[in-house]
């Protein structure tokens, strides 16, 4: 792997985010916590929201590729961290807003090489890339509702455009998983390859784009993002705000505790004896 110069724009990133410059202006970004399936610490969320502005202004980069070290792409937040406070959740929401806006406004193409499990934020990162190459057997899972929070990273923004509303609602409401092969079948990812060929295919596509007409490629991306994706930003803002509120709720607290105790979650909002803000006045009257 190449060594970045001390004054390189990417030299400030920690060892958990590896940066490698490839020929022809291709930049390879590797999420590097393989022992934890590349799950993210809170500082990593911030770094991975800032990096796209650096990619966009780096004169040496024409195309970026993002992948994960080892056998996984990224499995979202590391659940071993302390439970986030509401202030932590708000900060995370702002970092996510910055990441998504940077990705949509970045003219340079981004390719995701989904070499293994992509869960939560990891799936968001994989699908928000302009071109996604997934391992045929990679496990893809949004999973937010399973832990008692809204699917707020990216779902309302990108899923309906890629897979349609019927598939979106099924996978988002149920938190069902799917393989890379199934994701390609429904249009959620661009293409699939055998696991060992995923990164090579992604880099080959990146190299081809890097040697093409940069103005034509970047303006094509800009015109596709304008309207189709930017018009959905209010939906994404709403889902992110609701997800942030969930972090302060009893369901999320129960989901975290259940995970630590290796048992199914018993969500307070689903218990018969629990009063819910979603109950209608008539339902509340019957309960009394």
UniProtKB/TrEMBL annotation:
Q: Which Pfam families match?
A: ECH_1
Signal sequence interval, chain numbering: none
Which residues lie within the region annotated Disordered? 259-288
InterPro entries cross-referenced by the UniProt entry: ClpP/crotonase-like_dom_sf, Enoyl-CoA_hydra/iso, Enoyl-CoA_hydra_C
Q: Which domain of life is it from?
A: Bacteria
**Protein family (similarity comment):** Belongs to the enoyl-CoA hydratase/isomerase family.
Protein name, per record: Enoyl-CoA hydratase/isomerase family protein
Q: Which organism is it from?
A: Rhodococcus jostii
């Amino acid at each position: 792997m190449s060594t970045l110069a001390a004054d390189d724009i990417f030299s400030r990133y920690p060892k958990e985010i590896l940066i490698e410059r490839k020929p022809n202006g291709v930049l390879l970004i590797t999420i590097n916590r393989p022992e934890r399936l590349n799950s993210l610490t809170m500082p990593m969320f911030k770094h991975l929201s800032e990096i796209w502005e650096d990619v966009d202004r780096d004169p040496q980069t024409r195309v970026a590729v993002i992948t994960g070290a080892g056998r996984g792409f990224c499995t979202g937040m590391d659940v071993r961290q302390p439970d986030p406070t509401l202030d932590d959740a708000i900060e995370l929401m702002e970092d996510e807003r910055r990441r998504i806006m940077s990705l949509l406004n970045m003219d340079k193409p981004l390719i995701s090489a989904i070499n293994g499990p992509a869960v939560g934020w990891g799936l968001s990162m994989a699908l928000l890339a302009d071109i996604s190459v997934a391992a045929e057997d990679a496990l893809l899972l949004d999973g937010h509702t399973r832990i008692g929070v809204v699917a707020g990273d990216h779902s309302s923004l990108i899923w309906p455009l890629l897979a349609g509303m019927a598939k979106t609602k099924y996978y988002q409401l149920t938190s069902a998983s799917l393989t890379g092969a199934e994701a390609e079948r429904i249009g959620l990812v661009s293409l699939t390859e055998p696991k060992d060929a995923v990164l090579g295919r992604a880099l080959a596509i990146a190299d081809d784009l890097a040697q093409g007409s940069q103005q034509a490629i970047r303006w094509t991306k800009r015109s596709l993002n304008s309207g189709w994706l930017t018009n959905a930003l209010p939906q994404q803002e709403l889902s992110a705000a609701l997800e942030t509120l969930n972090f302060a709720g009893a369901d999320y607290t129960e989901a975290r505790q259940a995970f630590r105790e290796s048992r199914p979650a018993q969500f307070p909002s689903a218990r018969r004896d629990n009063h819910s803000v979603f109950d209608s006045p008539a339902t509340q009257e019957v309960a009394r």
